[in-house]
Write a structure and sequence with these properties.
- The protein is of the alpha/beta class.
- The chain is elongated and about 65 Å long.
- The strands form three sheets. Strands 1-2-3-4-5-6-7 form a seven-stranded mixed sheet. The chain has a five-stranded mixed sheet with strand order 8-9-10-11-12, with no helix packed on it. It has a two-stranded antiparallel ribbon with strand order 13-14.
- The chain is built from nine helices and 14 strands.
């Protein structure tokens, strides 16, 4: 009854109940378009973790704090603020909310390393850690899923097949694997790992929960492989600047998006290099 009351309170506050032990509250963050918000997930019951505290506006931080208080009042046991990774639209308010709520911050060790000047990470989470429990005792387990970011975590509830996916997939827009902190090969491995779990739903950091999980994961992998094939097709034996490869590799993408496409393509080129198929030469790229 208390959990049901919490779900009613959450819905009245603008949140949505997405499944057993999963409530989503979307709050505005400085994220990449077309997304304008990051989903703040309340995962589990006793204990409960609040995923990706990142809303920069004071009013939204108060909304999140009020939701945490409401969960406590209904009998939940909020235990931590859990970060899927270090990007600002996922961790930007972690330090403020740690102070305001008294909740510790949990994250992967790599995320803690990237955030060491900004946020105290009180507990490092590793693959397989039990981080939350539903009201019936069903556990939520941490999954180490690097690629989009070096310390990326997802959460998996094996019994229901629910996955809190962070930035592995998106409910709107697409996922950027930036060469500054991403790794295309690891990202593809993480997608394949999720597919092997046969999830039934994916709760992304941006946009609505995706119910056709396997089809979406297969689409993401096929899209990346097809894109990488186009990048390989754009290469020649003579080195060319990466920007010169865009018309062939990303000719189907609006030129307005080419600055982001260049970053994504560089991640593909680095992945091709690790496979022995491409090489950097004199500031450009050629076939290996």
């Amino acid at each position: 009854m208390a959990r049901t009351h919490w779900e009613s309170e959450a819905a009245a506050a603008g949140a949505s109940v997405e499944g057993a032990g999963l409530v989503r509250l979307a709050l505005a963050t400085p994220t990449l378009p077309p997304a304008t918000a990051t989903n703040h997930y309340f995962v589990g019951w006793r204990p409960m973790v609040i995923v990706d505290p990142s809303a920069p506006a004071a009013r939204d931080q108060r909304r999140l704090g009020a939701a945490i208080d409401a969960a406590r009042a209904c009998g939940a046991e909020p235990a931590a603020l859990l970060l899927t990774h270090h990007h600002r639209d996922h961790a930007g308010a972690a330090a403020l909310l740690r102070r305001a709520t008294g909740l510790p911050v949990w994250a992967h060790a790599e995320t803690a390393r990237w955030l060491q000047a900004e946020v105290v990470v009180d507990r490092t989470v590793v693959d397989g850690d039990d981080v939350a429990h539903n009201a019936d005792g069903a556990p939520w387990l941490a999954l180490f899923t690097p690629g989009h970011a070096p310390g990326h975590l997802a959460l998996h509830q094996p019994g229901s097949g629910q996955v809190v996916a962070g930035d592995l997939v998106a409910g709107e827009g697409t996922i950027l694997v930036d060469p500054s902190d991403g790794d295309m090969g690891l990202y593809l491995q993480s997608l394949a790992r999720l597919e092997a779990l046969a999830p039934r739903s994916l709760a992304p950091a941006h946009g609505p929960v995706q119910r056709d999980a396997l089809a979406l994961l297969q689409h993401y992998q096929a899209h990346r492989r097809a894109r990488e094939a186009r990048v390989l097709e754009a290469l020649a034996t003579t080195p060319r600047p990466a920007a010169d490869l865009l018309p062939t590799a990303y000719g189907d993408v609006s030129r307005l998006a080419w600055p982001l496409a260049l970053r994504s393509m560089t991640s593909h080129l680095l992945h091709l290099q690790r496979q022995g198929l491409a090489r950097p030469v004199d500031g450009g790229w050629s076939l290996a």
